[in-house]
Design brief:
Number of strands of chain A: 4
Shape of chain A: globular
Oligomer: heterodimer
Number of strands of chain B: 10
CATH topology of chain B: Rossmann fold
Radius of gyration of chain B: 19 Å
Organism (chain B): Aquitalea aquatica
Distance between the termini of chain B: 47 Å
Protein name (chain B): Urea ABC transporter ATP-binding protein UrtD
Radius of gyration of chain A: 21 Å
Strand order of the largest sheet of chain A: 1-4
Largest interface: A-B, 28 and 33 residues
Number of helices of chain A: 14
Largest sheet of chain B: 6 strands, mixed
Helix content of chain B: 25-40%
Number of domains of chain A: 1
Number of domains of chain B: 1
Order of helices and strands of chain B: EEEHEEHEHHHHEHEHEEHH
CATH superfamily of chain B: P-loop containing nucleotide triphosphate hydrolases
Keywords (chain B): ATP-binding, Nucleotide-binding, Transport
GO molecular function (chain B): ATP binding; ATP hydrolysis activity
CATH architecture of chain B: 3-Layer(aba) Sandwich
Structural class of chain B: alpha/beta
GO cellular component, one term (chain B): plasma membrane
Chain lengths: ~375, ~280
């Protein structure tokens, strides 16, 4: 009960200061690509390509955290395999980017380099159409969605929940990682996809391309937040929290939780796929490491640290942890995982409502 | 109190004495031509060799308020689990009205067919307000699509107001349900059941943990529901049962031991024996 209440309280954080902070953050994010494009690199206002890419990457993670929170924070389904949906979205986009290299690869072939290396003569059937960005985007969203639909249908219909559900999602992403590590699977084995040259004819590393991809990521995050707010404040959203807090009560009210869980689960997977599709052209690589169980666990930590059951919390959590990570891995690379573990334990013990709960407590004391 | 215009409200006179008059349908699809709303016939359920229900047969008449008593482990909760689809019977049949075989439906479907259930431990959605709890329980479409587009109609608001008055939580409507007292949660759960507009209500220990005053008010509430709904109440509180009961059924070791008025069953040698122990 305590946790259900605290989740609700976190959701009701004081709106005005938060709105102001949100508006300021959005203004800064929108200014960043402009500062990258139109300021002198020597100026102190200039945003470097490194910074822009780093922030763009973190924004993609923030979208994933938001998607994770809809299924975990609101619906109570702890997924430890959300990295899989993100990676699949990335692979979908990666297929297009590999095809867009054209003849400019090392082997100057029509086929992506890794296929030439494997001595393949023709494109596998599932690569057909991947030279079109629109189709690649359909794959990036549709494949995670379809996988989530099939897996979710089987799991929810059998009423698998709690830790069993978490373990199964973990196993799913692990199995997919092993599959993608194989060269024969047709996705570049352990090297994955990299050395992209262009997207829609524009050079992938050009400032204008970077700025556009960054802006699209900001827009997707804002759209996902808006859709999320609408969703969780509708009757549908209340049914999700009812599933989390008292699923059997809900069933005896005549609701079948299966379809509600399936809807939010699939929607969350598709959002992750889209985030992955924006991530890959910005960071320039996708490989099966993205499917490792540790990555998915990290997603859960972002949400827990930020504050689950609120939409802003996970975005803050993803931002805070990844910013800390990029600093830590430069300053003390070998201690990062210890720090992450300590942070998670500290959050669990002292901040059940996450960073957002801390902000709220601060406000209460003031 | 509650208006007499709800869909399932049929004049009380219909069932008092004259069973033939209750031949009308309560709601399309529910056939109660023989005056019984629930039939349990020869039901057995075992868990790992333990016989929770042992060839139990029981029926409830339309509009009846039936009390079920029995020592711990007599199978009272298991019986409710079978009726509401939570547990499947190993053998025997459970019918809702003449025609609906409950074994063929899921929990959610059975709730939609018109059987509401209150749990032994009061279970409400604690992170929502009292009013939101009732909104969620209100009869209506249960699909995902409908929930995305749902807007409260004026009629539904009136219905919620009516229910809030009935369960005496009008003042608490904006409070989080998790902050209510134990007794208030019990009432809220009863209110949620009524919001579903069920034909049959199953109440598992509705006055557990209530003060004497609250218990008295609950008895009043149940008496006003009798006739409009059929009720099955499991309780241990004999004073409470005395204040509401018509007919009492005593369960022991998974089967019906005795049935009759409270005085009759209390005088029954076998009932005294199972209660006082051997």
């Amino acid at each position: 009960m305590q946790s259900a209440l605290s989740l609700r309280l976190a959701h009701r954080i004081g709106p005005l200061p938060l709105k102001l902070a949100g508006a300021a953050a959005l203004a800064v994010l929108l200014a960043m690509p402009a500062l990258h494009l139109w300021t002198d690199p020597a100026s102190s206002l200039h945003v470097s390509a490194y910074t822009l890419t780093l922030v763009g990457k973190i924004l993609c993670y923030a979208i994933v955290a938001l998607a994770m929170d809809l299924v975990w924070g609101y619906t109570g389904l702890l997924s430890l395999g959300h990295g899989l949906f993100f990676a699949l979205g990335g692979y979908g986009m990666g297929m297009y980017l590999m095809r867009a290299i054209g003849h400019d690869g090392n082997y100057q072939s029509d086929l992506p380099d890794f296929m030439v290396f494997l001595d393949w003569k023709t494109l596998p059937w599932f690569w057909q159409g991947s030279e079109h960005l629109a189709w690649a985007l359909c794959l990036a969203v549709g494949v995670p969605g379809l996988l989530a639909l099939v897996f979710g249908w089987l799991a929810f219909r059998s009423r698998i929940k709690g830790v069993y559900f978490s373990i199964m999602t973990q196993a799913l992403t692990y199995a997919a990682m092993l599959l993608f590590f194989r060269n024969e699977t047709g996705f570049g084995g352990n090297n994955g996809f990299t050395d992209f040259k262009r997207i829609l004819g524009y050079g992938i590393a050009e400032p204008a391309t970077r700025a556009t991809l960054f802006l699209l990521t900001v827009l997707l995050l804002v759209a996902a937040l808006a859709a999320g707010f609408w969703l969780v404040n509708s009757k549908f959203g209340r049914i999700l929290t009812a599933i989390r807090d008292a699923e059997s009560r809900l069933m005896f009210c005549g609701y079948n939780p299966l379809y509600y869980k399936l809807f939010i689960w699939v929607a969350s997977a598709m959002l992750c796929g889209l985030a992955g599709a924006l991530y890959v052209p910005q960071v320039g690589i996708i490989n099966p490491g993205e499917m490792s169980p540790a990555n998915s666990i990290e997603i859960a930590i972002w949400v827990a640290v930020g504050g689950r059951g609120s939409l802003i919390g996970p975005v803050l959590g993803a931002g805070f942890i990844n910013a800390a990570k990029s600093w830590f891995t430069v300053a003390f690379p070998e201690y990062w995982l210890f720090f992450l573990g300590a942070l998670f334990i500290a959050t669990t013990l002292f901040l059940p409502r996450g960073l957002l709960g801390l902000l709220r407590r601060h406000k209460e004391n003031a | 109190m509650m208006s007499a215009t709800t869909s399932q409200s049929v004049q009380r006179e219909s069932w008092d004495g004259d069973t033939a008059a209750s031949g009308r349908l309560l709601q399309p699809g529910l056939d109660v031509t023989h005056g019984q709303i629930l039939y349990l016939d020869d039901i057995s359920v075992s868990f790992d060799g333990f016989r929770a229900l042992n060839r139990l047969s029981l029926s409830i008449a339309v509009g009846e308020l039936r009390c079920i008593i029995g020592p711990n482990g007599a199978g009272k909760t298991t019986m409710m689990d079978v009726i509401t689809g939570k547990t499947r019977a190993d053998s025997g049949s459970a019918f809702f009205g003449q025609t609906i075989n409950l074994a063929q439906h899921s929990e959610a479907e059975i709730a939609q067919l018109g059987i509401g259930r209150k749990f032994q431990k009061p279970t409400v959605f604690e992170a929502m307000t009292v009013q939101e709890n009732l909104e969620l329980a209100l009869a209506g479409p249960r699909s995902v699509w409908a929930s995305l587009r749902a807007r409260l109609t004026g009629q539904q608001r009136d219905r919620i107001d009516e229910l809030l008055t009935l369960i005496r939580l009008g003042e608490q409507r904006q409070r989080l349900a998790g902050l209510l007292s134990h007794g208030q949660k019990q009432w809220l759960e009863i209110g949620m059941l009524l919001a579903q507009e069920p034909q049959l209500l199953l109440l598992d220990e509705p006055v557990a943990g209530m003060t004497d005053a609250e218990t008295e008010k609950t008895a009043e509430l149940l008496l006003t529901l009798k006739g409009r709904h059929s009720l099955m109440v499991v309780e241990h509180d004999m004073d409470f049962i005395a204040s509401i009961a018509g007919k009492v059924t005593v369960l022991a070791e998974g089967a019906v031991l005795a049935e009759g008025s409270l005085q009759q069953v209390q005088a029954d040698e076998r009932v005294i024996e199972v209660y006082l122990g051997r």
